[in-house]
């Protein structure tokens, strides 16, 4: 989530991976897209998504093949979430026992701050498909509807070393053309990444479960960045709970990681 420097007025901004900018070199201006939001969970009333320039590669998604309850399934990798989540349909397919919510509650929200309610959770014996001997009992929160059937969060990825030592287990896929871009944000941001947007230092919420990067459109207007109309095939984004939202603009901003974009 983007935030302006503490010395000025605070405006919350959401940014999702893939983030552009490496090493000590500022990235080229990148595209952003705006989306309206009536939520009160964020200080701004609109969100902007930043995507790659038109001449950049296709969106590439990461998934991790798993063995769940003795069956092979692939999960979306999402560093923006701590918890693991699963659709009710997949839970039925795996014949899992779903524990209804009592004291074991957890707050989930989509990318525009709308609450997402879990129906319960299941404890599952789980391992990476390529490391079947390394298994553990893992909790998955169950939702009645999801954009994807299975998501593993940061805690699981750290424990299994799925993004470090065992990164070779990841599979890269390119989604079919015509499918909506996804933003699988399911929890309030926990990590921050220092970035430069224009002349300002801001803090971003890195999230590998998203095809998009989001910032507040009010911040874009405040910073003097210009917005343009969207192409017809990129006007909608799908959230973790399966809902969709129409986008409202596209523009270009100087963007870099942890340093001044002017350097």
Could you characterize what this model shows?
The chain is mainly beta and 263 residues long. It has a domain at 61-173: Acid Proteases (Cathepsin D, subunit A, domain 1, Beta Barrel), CATH 2.40.70. The protein contains three helices and 20 strands. The strands form four sheets. Strands 1, 2, 13, 16, 17, 18 and 19 form a seven-stranded mixed beta sheet that branches.
Largest sheet: 7 strands, mixed
> Segments where pLDDT lies below 50 for 5+ residues?
1-57, 259-263
CATH class of the domain at 61-173: Mainly Beta
CATH topology of the domain at 61-173: Cathepsin D, subunit A, domain 1
Features:
263 residues, Peptidase A2 domain-containing protein, Cathepsin D, subunit A, domain 1, mainly beta, disordered C terminus, six-stranded mixed barrel, Peptidase_aspartic_dom_sf, 38% strand, seven-stranded mixed beta sheet
Topology:
Elements: E1 30-36, E2 46-51, E3 61-68, E4 71-77, E5 84-87, H1 88-93, E6 99-100, E7 108-109, E8 115-116, E9 120-128, E10 131-143, E11 150-152, H2 154-160, E12 171-173, E13 181-183, E14 193-197, E15 200-204, E16 213-215, H3 217-223, E17 227-228, E18 236-239, E19 244-253, E20 255-257
Parallel strand pairs: 4-11, 5-10, 13-18
Antiparallel strand pairs: 1-2, 1-19, 2-16, 3-4, 3-9, 3-12, 5-11, 6-9, 7-8, 9-10, 14-15, 14-20, 17-19, 18-19
């Amino acid at each position: 989530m983007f935030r302006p420097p503490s010395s000025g007025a605070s405006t919350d901004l959401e940014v999702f991976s893939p983030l552009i900018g490496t090493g000590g070199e500022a990235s080229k201006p990148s595209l952003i897209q705006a989306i309206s939001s009536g939520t009160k969970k964020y200080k701004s009333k609109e969100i902007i998504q930043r995507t790659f320039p038109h001449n950049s590669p296709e969106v590439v998604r990461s998934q991790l093949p798993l063995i769940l309850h003795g069956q092979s399934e692939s999960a979306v990798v999402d560093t923006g979430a701590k918890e693991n989540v699963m659709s009710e349909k997949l839970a039925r397919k795996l014949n899992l026992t779903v524990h209804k919510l009592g004291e074991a509650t957890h707050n989930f929200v989509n990318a525009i701050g709308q609450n997402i309610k879990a129906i319960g959770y299941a404890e599952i014996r789980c391992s990476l498909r390529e490391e079947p001997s390394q298994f553990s009992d893992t909790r998955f929160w169950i939702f009645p509807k999801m954009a994807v059937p299975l998501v593993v969060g940061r805690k699981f990825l750290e424990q299994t070393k799925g993004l470090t030592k065992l990164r070779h287990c990841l599979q890269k896929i390119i989604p079919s053309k015509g499918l909506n871009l996804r933003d699988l944000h399911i929890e309030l941001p926990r990590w921050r990444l220092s970035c430069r947007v224009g002349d300002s230092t801001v803090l971003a919420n890195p999230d590998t479960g998203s095809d998009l990067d989001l910032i507040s459109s009010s911040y874009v207007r405040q910073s003097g960045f210009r917005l343009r109309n969207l192409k017809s095939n990129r006007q909608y984004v799908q959230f973790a709970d399966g809902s969709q939202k129409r986008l409202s603009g596209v523009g270009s901003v100087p963007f870099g990681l942890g340093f001044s974009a002017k350097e």
